[in-house]
Amino acid sequence: MAPPLPGPLAHLAPLLTHYGYWAVGGVVLVEDFGVPAPGETILIAAGVYAGAGDLNIVAVAVIAFAAAVVGDNVGYLIGHTDGRAFVHRWGRYVFLTPKRFEAAEEFFTRHGGKIVTVARFVEGLRQVNGIIAGTSGMRWRRFLVFNALGAALWVGLWATLAYVAGSHITAIYDEISRYQLYALIALGVLVAALVLRHVLRRHLHQD
Q1: Closest-CA residue to 8 (of 179, 175, 173, 163)
Q2: What share of the chain is helix, strand, coil (3-state, %, to 5)?
Q3: Which of 30, 94, 133, 147 could form a disulfide with 138 if both were Cys (CB 3.0 to 4.6 A apart)?
Q4: Cα–Cα distance for residue pair 189/62, rounded to 1 Å
Q5: Which of the residue ranges 75-84, 110-119, 181-190, 192-201 would you say has the lowest mean pLDDT?
């Protein structure tokens, strides 16, 4: 029996309990063509269920991979046919303003295929990856290869980690939460040090 899901995973428990694999495929699919849905979260939750014996991890991985690839290709089709008009009309509902879209498209064009792979792991960029590829004129076959690679890595990482966690997810989450504050403090100190270094260097160059 699957353990109670902690933190942000908890609200997905009823969805997974009632719809199982359909929930995984549906949520991942719609997230990948721009709909703000918890695709990554439900993949992790499904992996935990599989680790506890309630779902089959191979089925979870295959369904999530297929949904991710199909969803991004729907996004590519939207971008290729009428991407800019679509973003201008509907983008504000998912916090994708024309200005943000233009910046993302420029970045995407500059870095090409590798950003398609990496985008899978970046919140916000994952949802509009296909749309931007379509509007920027990237060839579909090239997009398909890099997109499938990114989907395989993304599914493989989160499904494996969640599966290994399995019924121990609550204890693992509690440990992460316990040290989260220290990690945030360390990150804050690092950012402050980098900013200070930048300011000092700029000051020295001006002198």
Answers
A1: 173
A2: 85, 0, 15
A3: 133
A4: 41
A5: 181-190
Contact of 48 with 166, CB cutoff 8 Å: yes
Q: How does the average pLDDT of the chain come out, rounded?
A: 77
Give the per-residue pLDDT at 68: 92
- Torsions phi, psi for 120 (to 5 deg): -60, -30
Question: Which two three-digit tokens encode residue 110?
Answer: 């500059």
Residue type at position 167: S
* Lookup: tokens for 49: 């269920």
Contacts of 112 (CB under 8 A, 6+ apart): 138
Q: CA-CA distance, 193 to 94, in Å (whole number)?
A: 34
Among 9-23, 33-47, 93-107, 117-131, the range scoring the smallest mean pLDDT is 93-107
Residue 195, judged by CB atoms within 10 A of its CB (0-12, 13-18, 19+), counts as: exposed
Reading phi first (left if > 0) and then psi (alpha if -120 to 50, else beta), residue 76 is in alpha
Cα distances (angstroms) measured from residue 80 to each of 70, 139, 147, 166: 15, 10, 16, 40
pLDDT given for residue 135 in this prediction: 80
What letter would DSSP give residue 33?
T
Tell me the chain's radius of gyration from C-alpha atoms: 20
Q: Which two tokens stand for residue 195?
A: 């900013």
